[in-house]
Amino acid sequence: MPSINMQQCFVRNEQLKHYPKVSINSIPSRYLLMISSTSNIYGKCLFVLIVFITNLVHCRGLLYMSLDSVFSVQLRTFIYFLHGNWIFMVFYLRYNHNLLKQIDEHWNGLQIDFDYETRKYFWTRKAFYRYLTYVLFTLSIIITYGSQFYAWNDKDNSKLSREVFFKQNIIFYFLLMICVPIVYFNYIFQCFIQMDLPILAQTAVQFNLIRLKRLLNEAKKDEKSLNINAIQNIRQKYLLCCGLVDKIDEVMSPCLFLMFTDFVVHASALSHALLYTELNQSTQWAVVMQNSLNLINAWLFTRSTLQIHEKSLESLAIVYKLSMKTNSIHLLNEISLFLNHNEIGFTFGGMFMLTTSSLSTLFSVLITFILALPSFAT
Predict the structure, then answer these.
(1) What does the mean pLDDT of the chain come to?
(2) What is the rounded distance in angstroms from the CA atom of residue 368 to the CA atom of residue 221?
(3) Whether pLDDT at 93 is above 70
(4) Which intervals of the chain form a coiled coil (predicted)?
(5) Pure H helices in 95-178
(6) Which listed residue, of 93, 280, 326, 331, carries a Cα 20 to 30 Å from 376's Cα?
């Protein structure tokens, strides 16, 4: 596959001489489309089976509970259960063949795939984020299996009968050796798509940004070099970028909300493990490392989505600078039309656009929530 070859060359720091056509039609994408709402009956059955297996993993704590302890379920387990189902439903309902066809139409309408820098930008960043995702999930899998085996072997089973102990062993190894790999497999593929879609949007916005920078540099040398046709062409492509980002936002908007929810859960678990819980050193280190990896993954995802808005702001700033380089009424009218366009970016659950300022507000709410945890516990 071309994408794998590009990633391998990038990791080895070799010079990339050829970049394939920009596309998100990868193995993770084809797999998620296979179990989407527009798939055939076999794909839908596979989706139901995967959701069932995922719920077994998230609710594994319920398997050992008696009826008297039903109400002792931890809130975090319940949130994991909801999050695991919501993210599957988002991809099942929204990431389907119809959406991907519309994204391809918007991308092809830009007609920028011929540009070498465009392909280079897309594939290098995709390879970089894929590499980081592989590293994070490899470490996460090692920590998960190590901590689970350690906790299982350290558990006191002397009071259990041989029959009960045998059944618990079967359940434990079935979940850990069969169900958990399936859950990780699906979650990794979902993370790949959550990274690929923002990179595709970044690539489109970056193309306009590069062309605007070239126009500005030329205008600094010669103000008469400004061409109204060039500005019109960039403005039209900017509008097409808006349509592309809006279409991708149909998937990214709920994913961002779920990502923040997941971030809050892991940040709370991390702070609770460090400040309020007395655990043995091995267990505490496992909890800290696992939650830290999840927070890093959330940060990478958030950073990737924020770059689209930052690049759109930079583009509009350059357009404003271009207005200072001409006295032509026609050029100024075209530039004013450009400046009247909205900023480009993803929304947070459809409520507001995710920007640096809105993200700082969300973090303020998060810190307040974490600091208030002791009062909830009392």
Answers:
(1) 79
(2) 52
(3) yes
(4) none
(5) 97-110, 116-154, 162-174
(6) 280
Report how far residue 318's alpha carbon sits from residue 235's, in angstroms, rounded to the nearest whole number: 12
pTM of the full structure: 0.83
Q: Are 112 and 207 in contact (CB under 8 A)?
A: yes
Q: Indicate the pLDDT class of residue 41, thresholds 50, 70 and 90.
A: very high
Decide if pLDDT at 211 tops 50: yes
Report the alpha-carbon angle 207-260-63, nearest 5: 130
Place of tokens 């659950």: 349
Backbone angles phi and psi of 12, in degrees to 5: -85, 5
Structure-block tokens of residue 68: 């008297």
Q: CB count, 10 Å around CB of 79?
A: 16
The separation between CA 196 and the C-alpha centre of its own chain, rounded to angstroms, equals 8
Which of 23, 25, 46 is CA-nearest to residue 92? Answer: 46
**What CA–CA distance (Å, rounded) separates 94 from 116?**
31
Say how many residues make up the chain.
378
For tokens 């590069």, the residue is: 210
